[in-house]
């Protein structure tokens, strides 16, 4: 069973529940007593200092890292207790965008995106490549890009292509590991907007690891902060920034955090109807 809780914004269905998670590599403990929920339809931003285990957490949930302890329930099922077949079916409900895009360099974009459709949906190549071109269009890439190879593309186009591949099997949950890293601010802003648009249009749930303050302010419904081997706080940003933890204070209320917050407020003011601006 998935769990439904009553939050501030009405009832929320938790489709992923991480409880008491422990991850260690030798004597290096990365996570201990880590709890986290992912609610259906939300964009959850996961943030924390370098090496706090954001990627390891993502990889644990999608089944690429076997935790040393604790429980991960996905769509109501204990991930670690699933048979190989059930696990593969569950994982097909996930789309993952890795930090470096992880496209096959010897395949063009439509071939890259067709691959999971051929492998998991057993589609003939022409149909799979037709669907691949539709996924590329969904992420804003042109028909011309479909026959290009990763080496011919800009960083922003690679991210979009990797996103198209993550969307290939029509996932319910999208996992994004630092999607705007390496993009210029305009490209990063456009990518943030794309994620929100896709979430709204496709009804996705998004787990997004990021260092990008603009992404947190512009795209995320809730923010989870990893610190001291666990999730210190997971809440709406307005509440998170009030947490007295020194890292949170430095990160959100230092110069870059203040600039991101100011930019969002200015944007909102500029976008407000004229009458509202006059009366404020
Ligand atoms: N396969 C592994 N073997 C050993 N140690 C690992 C392995 N994977 C991750 N680690 C260690 O776990 C810790 C957390 O790594 P992780 O990549 O999750 O951090 P992160 O919070 O995503 O960092 P960053 O923000 O710099 O990307 C690091 O100290 C890393 O060296």
Automatic annotation (TrEMBL):
Species source reads: Marinobacter psychrophilus
- UniProt keyword Nucleotide-binding present: yes
Record has Nucleotide-binding as a keyword: yes
Molecular function terms from GO: ATP binding; ATP hydrolysis activity
Against InterPro entries, the record matches this protein to: AAA+_ATPase, ABC_transporter-like_ATP-bd, ABC_transporter-like_CS, P-loop_NTPase
Q: Which Pfam families does UniProt cross-reference here?
A: ABC_tran
**Which domain of life does the protein's organism represent?**
Bacteria
Please list the residue ranges annotated as the ABC transporter domain: 16-253
* Name the UniProt record assigns to this protein: Iron ABC transporter ATP-binding protein
- Keyword field: ATP-binding, Nucleotide-binding, Transport
Gene3D superfamilies in UniProt: P-loop containing nucleotide triphosphate hydrolases (3.40.50.300)
């Amino acid at each position: 069973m998935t769990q439904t809780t009553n939050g501030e914004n009405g009832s929320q269905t938790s489709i992923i529940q991480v409880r008491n998670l422990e991850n260690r590599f030798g004597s290096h403990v990365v996570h201990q007593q880590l709890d986290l929920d992912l609610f259906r339809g939300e964009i959850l931003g996961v943030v924390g200092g370098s090496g706090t285990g954001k990627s390891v957490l993502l990889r644990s949930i999608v089944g690429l890292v076997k935790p040393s302890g604790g429980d991960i329930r996905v769509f109501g099922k204990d991930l670690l207790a699933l048979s190989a077949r059930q696990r593969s079916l569950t994982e097909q409900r996930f789309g993952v965008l890795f930090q470096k895009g992880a496209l096959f360099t010897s395949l063009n974009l439509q071939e890259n995106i067709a691959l999971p459709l051929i492998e998991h949906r057993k589609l003939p190549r022409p149909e799979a490549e037709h669907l691949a071109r539709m996924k590329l269009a969904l992420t804003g890439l042109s028909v011309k890009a479909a026959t290009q190879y990763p080496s011919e593309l800009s960083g922003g186009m690679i991210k979009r292509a990797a996103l198209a591949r993550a969307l290939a099997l029509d996932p319910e949950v999208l996992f994004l590991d630092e999607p705007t890293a390496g993009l210029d601010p305009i490209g990063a802003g456009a990518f943030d907007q794309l994620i929100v648009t896709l979430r709204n249009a496709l009804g996705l749930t998004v787990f997004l690891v990021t260092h990008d303050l603009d992404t947190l302010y512009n795209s995320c419904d809730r923010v989870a902060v990893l610190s001291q081997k666990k999730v210190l706080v997971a809440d709406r940003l307005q509440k998170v920034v009030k947490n007295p933890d020194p890292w949170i204070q430095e990160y959100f209320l230092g110069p870059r955090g203040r600039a991101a917050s100011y930019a969002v407020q200015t944007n909102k003011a500029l976008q407000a109807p004229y009458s509202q601006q006059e009366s404020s």
